[in-house]
Amino acid sequence: MIAFLRGRVLDKQPNKIVVDVQGVGYEVHVPLSTYYDVGDEGSDVTLRIHTHVREDALQLYGFLTALEQLVFERLIGISGIGPRLAVAVLSGSDTRELVHAVQRADVARLTRIPGIGKKTAERIVLELKERFAELAVTAGAGAAAAPSTGDRLRDDLLSALRNLGYHRPLAENAVDATLRASPSPTFEDALRAALRELMR
Fold this sequence. Notes:
- By secondary structure, the chain is α+β, with helices and mostly antiparallel strands.
- The protein has 3 domains: about 5-65, CATH 2.40.50.140; about 65-140, Orthogonal Bundle (DNA polymerase, domain 1); about 150-200, Orthogonal Bundle (Helicase, Ruva Protein, domain 3).
- It is built from 10 helices and 5 strands.
- A hairpin with a 4-residue loop joins β4 (about 45-55) and β5 (about 60-65).
């Protein structure tokens, strides 16, 4: 899985950019916030990447900040929200403002984002309000690019289990049980414990 790209902006459009990495062009779908900040064609760029695999396609989604990527990955974990809609959500609102809107259960604010109806907005609030609690503090403190170590470990473990073929709900339950039992494990120890949890 591709998790990171560093190269040169070869082509740039509002919903995607092409990154030239040593002569190989990678098409990367991006939210508007990333599009505006990557610089002009020819500029050097470094992107965090989420690789989305389907039966008929392999797509890359790119982000300039860890917060953008984290919010994107939380959004696509919600039933009915795919990567394209998650990018649209990030494009329709400043990431920190989005986190705070979810925290405030501001459904009206969320429904002003193109593609988000009332039911989808309510589902986002229901599923993400608790998970965004720590992010809201971080975003408000102006440290949006650096999620907590615990969040990062949880996301790394989920990514590893998903890549091993486990469905997200099962993976989340195993990871959460592991982190409750041992709040500060190494990645390797936590992954072994999560796998043991899944084998029960």
